[in-house]
Write a structure and sequence with these properties.
It is a single chain. The protein is an all-beta fold and 122 residues long. It contains no helices and 11 strands. The strands form 2 sheets. Strands 2, 4, 5, 6, 9, 10 and 11 form a 7-stranded mixed β-sheet that branches. It has a 4-stranded antiparallel β-sheet with strand order 1-3-8-7, with no helix packed on it. β4 and β5 form a beta hairpin.
């Protein structure tokens, strides 16, 4: 099993940047594919980005070119660098882990953090 704890959320003006972190417990972090998802009020959870065990990445079209996912296996941490933030990026951001390949479907991820709020003001 793995436990995930997100940090780095907050309030930022449109056009600003934030970096989210997701720290994982355990010694097998490098074997997990990691994903970031978000859920805005009244909306379903949606895929944001994912990174494979080997470092391949995938992004939702809505964040491509603005967000960058990365991982540091030595620190058991995955990051989401968010630049050029827009009000529509406002949501609770959660990281997730799964054994196996990187996928975009949230139901394929077995382990979840508690989420961190990101609010972008206009």
């Amino acid at each position: 099993q793995v436990q995930l704890v997100e940090s780095g959320g907050g309030l930022v003006q449109a056009g600003g940047s934030l970096r989210l972190s997701c720290a994982a417990s355990g010694r097998t972090f490098s074997t997990y594919a990691m994903g970031w998802f978000r859920q805005a009020p009244g909306k379903e959870r949606e895929f944001v980005s994912a990174i494979s065990r080997g470092g391949s990445t995938n992004y939702a079209d809505s964040v491509k070119g603005r967000f960058t996912i990365s991982r540091d296996n030595a620190k058991n941490t995955v990051y989401l660098q968010m630049n050029s933030l827009k009000p529509e990026d406002t949501a609770v951001y959660s990281c997730a882990a799964r054994v196996g390949i990187m996928v975009v479907h949230d139901k394929a991820y077995a382990y979840w953090g508690q989420g961190t709020q990101v609010t972008v003001s206009s």
